[in-house]
Design goal:
Layout: H1 4-29, H2 31-61, H3 74-108, E1 113-117, E2 123-126, H4 128-134, H5 146-149, H6 153-161, E3 168-171, E4 179-187, E5 191-198, H7 200-236, H8 243-273, E6 282-284, H9 286-301, E7 306-311, E8 316-319, H10 321-337, E9 344-352, E10 355-362, H11 384-389, H12 396-406, E11 410-416, E12 420-426, E13 432-433, H13 436-441
Parallel strand pairs: 7-9
Antiparallel strand pairs: 1-2, 1-5, 3-4, 4-5, 6-8, 8-13, 9-10, 10-12, 11-12
Helix pairs in contact: 1-2, 7-8, 8-12, 9-10, 10-12
Bound molecules: adenosine-5'-diphosphate.
Residues 330, 334-335, 338, 362, 364-365, 367, 375, 380-383, 387, 392-398, 421 line the site of adenosine-5'-diphosphate.
Length: 442
Amino acid sequence: MITVIDFWRRALVFPFALLLVSLLLWALAGALPAALFFGVFLLARLVFHLRQLGLLEYWLADPEGRPAPDDTGLWEEVFARLNRMMRLNRVERARHNAALQHMEQATSALPEGVVMLDEADHIEWCNPLAEQHFGLDCVRDIGQQITYMARQPEFVQYLAMRNFSEPLVLRGARQDGLTLSIKLIPYSGNKKLLISRDNTRFERIETMRRDFVANVSHELRTPLTVVNGFVETLHDMPSLENDMARRALHLMGEQTQRMERLVNDLLTLSKLDNALNALQEEKVDMAALLRALYHEGQALSGNRHSLQLELESSCAVLGNAEELRSAFSNLVSNAIRYTPQGGEIMLRWWEQDGQPVFSVRDSGIGIAPQHIPRLTERFYRVDRSRSRETGGTGLGLAIVKHVANRHQARLEIASEEGKGSTFSIAFPAKRRLPLPEEEASA
Ligand code: ADP
């Protein structure tokens, strides 16, 4: 590589030599021949540089396909430098391509479909699994709008909502029976990664599990009712004089009733779990529902507790009365069962920031903080024997949680061991139905 000084030294050799010779000629032969000599050689030099420029331009038009012009002097250095840059560029490009291929191979091996979407949801790239999931062709469909390729209304809506915190479950996505779990991850401003996972097998197993529990519960129901009926009849028979037999029949009756409660709760859960069982919505008169629950609670408590009902709001909600009744009644029954005699229980219907809330507060045994996150799991109990003694199935709060989810409501549990608990269900504002006076003034 030549230095700047070198460059100027070499660049000025010719003009200086030409000037010197021209001056010599001027002294020997006069000004005109000297000027002519100077002009001709200058012109020849200009033509030479133009030719070199032409060669350079010709080579740069296709540097990969044509050999670099080789020359001597100043141009030699320029051509050599450009050639070096091209070579480096080629190596760099090959490295980038290899890295890109590596990335593509890695994403192709992912057990999930990946589609890269631009700001306007056009496909930029996708892996082979995404091709299968959405019926795409990763070469042909580049630049296509994704909603043009995957047209399910739920998917189009999910994309338009721009709230990607929860995945979308897409059933029958491209072929019947295919279930996809879809997640959109925003990146680099407004671009998105669309990740799809085939949940068909998992969904099938889940359905089998649900059907199995529902079928077993259903099958057990009739024999249990029959056995229970006979046990009750035998127990009440005046001719039964054997104390031992009477006690045994009493215990048998208790156990069959417990099994009946279990079976009923399992059936309720199966119904709530069933994806085909959509929520049947109606206007639910909360005041009336809570008054009925309050009376039921009083009967269950048998005057062992002080029960209060506070109806601070008279708004109704849009929901399913039967499901809400079942969930609220579980909360009331729990408050009674886990509050010692003389304790206080308050049922409250109120509003917080436009959200209707139902809460049950008790002054009962309370719950240690480590148990709270697990209470809504099926059969999770803090104290197994207390739950059994009071007729619990371990499924009550699981039912409450399901019903709350189906109403997009939030179940909140606040509790202090030894002091009491508050269970609240907060409904979204969109489920609040206006009061009659609000309707009249609207
Ligand atoms: P269970 O039929 O056992 O009551 P749940 O699902 O209704 O089942 O409740 C799960 C567990 O949560 C109960 O076993 C109990 O330990 C605890 N729990 C529920 N409600 C209360 C409450 N009001 N006070 C104290 N513990 C409670």
